[in-house]
Structures are given as structure tokens and as C-alpha cells.
Amino acid sequence: MRIVLVEGESDAVAVRTLAARLQMPVPQVLPVGGSKGARRAAVQLEGAQLFGLVDAAERRDFERVLATVFVCDPDLEFEFIRALGPLGVEAVIAGQGELGSFRRLQTQPYQQNQPVERQLARFFGGRSGNKVRYARLLAQAVPLEDIPAPLAALLERLCSPLPKGEV
């Protein structure tokens, strides 16, 4: 059995959404509650073929316990921002009727001097439920040929044949 360990629910939503868009079997994805949860999950899932998707800053926590880890640099949100471009991400936000809210965030003193990519990442993390909701929306919006590299590599690996004797 193949299982993807991820830090949080937004990562899981992105993986499942992209798998469905690619018309592949939706993998079993397990949020482990932060990178430190990878060790506990790996012990509990002994015998399964485990893969990890993790943010760059937490990669070591996953690499200590998993043989195959895909790393988002610096995190999932930035991967989607790069793939869609700031204007593409703003279009997704506008589609949710929240562009005004994002523009207000941009006027905050600390945010005024930040690059738009950092402002967008702050917007996603600034409101409860935003990371999960926008993970789905961004995964739905990204052109299939522009899926961020760590997600594309993970999904490609999940499509590869199982080793002999594995179910």
C-alpha cells in the first residue's frame, strides 16, 4: 500500500485535487500534524510504501524517517504562486470575491515593502481555513503542464508500477 505523508490538510487537499484532475486514482494522503508527526506516522504505518511532501524548512524531519521525500521550496503556497504567477493567483482570489481583502493587506505598513509573492503567502495564512480552501482552488487553477515540480514528481512516482509482491 502507498501512502503520502504531508504536514497539514492543505497539502493533502492539493495532492488529492491534482490527482483527480490528472484522472489518476486519488492516493491515500495522511496529514501528520506538522513535520514532527512524520516519525510517529511512519512507525504506525510500518510495511506501507511511504512518500513525503514537506516544506523545505522541515525536510529533515521527513528525511530522517522516509526514503522518498518531495520538497516544496519554501512551501506549498510559494510553489503555486510560482506556477500561476502573481497575476494568476490574484485572479483566483478575485474569483472568490476577496481581491479587496488582499488589497487591504497590501496597504498594511509591514506588507507595503514586501514582494507580492510574500503578500500572497501571508494572505493565505492570515485567515482560518484559507490555506486549505486556496490549496484546492490553486490546484484547480494551475495548468496541468505547470504543476509545481515537487507535486508533479510525487504524482508521477505514485503512478509508477508497484514493486513485485506489493499490493
Beta-strand percent range: 5-15%
Task: Count up the helices.
Answer: 9
Biggest sheet features:
4 strands, parallel
Helicity range of the residues?
A: 55-70%
Radius of gyration: 17 Å
Mean pLDDT: 95
**Gap between N and C termini:** 6 Å
Low-confidence stretches: none
- Order of SSEs: EHEHEHEHHHHHH
Structural class: alpha/beta
Morphology: globular
Strand order of the largest sheet: 2-1-3-4
Number of beta strands: 4
Which features does this protein show?
167 residues; 9 helices; globular
Written account of the structure:
This protein has 167 residues and is α/β, with parallel strands linked by helices. It contains 9 helices and 4 strands; from the N terminus they run E-H-E-H-E-H-E-H-H-H-H-H-H. The chain has a 4-stranded parallel beta sheet, with helices on both faces. The model has no long low-confidence stretch (mean pLDDT 95).
In short:
The protein has 167 residues and is α/β, with parallel strands linked by helices. It is 55% helix and 13% strand. Strand 3, helix 3 and strand 4 form a beta-alpha-beta unit.
